[in-house]
């Protein structure tokens, strides 16, 4: 019976670890979005372009390199980063389109 409990206990422990990691990822995304909100406000206040293609390209290369170093598929990391960037740009676009901005 103990042999059957051990894998179940280990699985539960590993799943709890994954849950904690997921929570940390979401918390960090929240911090990132707050920071990009401030960037968007700064850009809007100074009439700067929403998108900086050069910066975006540098970020993609950086994220791919970091992913590779961390043992994460670089294509996955790029897909995630692009989704985050697209979400931020969409949010900034909507803010600029408000009639009272």
TrEMBL record:
Q: What class of enzyme is it?
A: isomerase
The residues covered by the Chorismate mutase domain are 5-96
Annotated Pfam families: CM_2
The organism's superkingdom is given as: Bacteria
Q: Is Metal-binding one of the keywords UniProt gives this record?
A: no
Keyword Isomerase set for record? yes
Report the EC number(s), separated by commas if there are several. Answer: 5.4.99.5
- UniProt record, GO biological process: chorismate metabolic process; salicylic acid biosynthetic process
Q: What is this protein called?
A: chorismate mutase
Record organism: Achromobacter veterisilvae
């Amino acid at each position: 019976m103990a042999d059957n409990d051990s894998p179940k206990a280990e699985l539960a422990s590993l799943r709890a670890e994954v849950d904690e990691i997921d929570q940390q990822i979401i918390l960090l995304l929240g911090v990132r979005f707050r920071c990009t909100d401030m960037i968007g406000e700064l850009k809007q206040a100074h009439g700067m372009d929403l998108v900086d293609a050069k910066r975006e390209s540098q970020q993609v290369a950086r994220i791919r390199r970091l992913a590779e170093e961390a043992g994460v598929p670089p294509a996955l990391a790029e897909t995630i980063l692009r989704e985050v960037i697209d979400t931020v740009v969409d949010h900034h676009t909507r803010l600029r389109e408000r009639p009272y901005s």
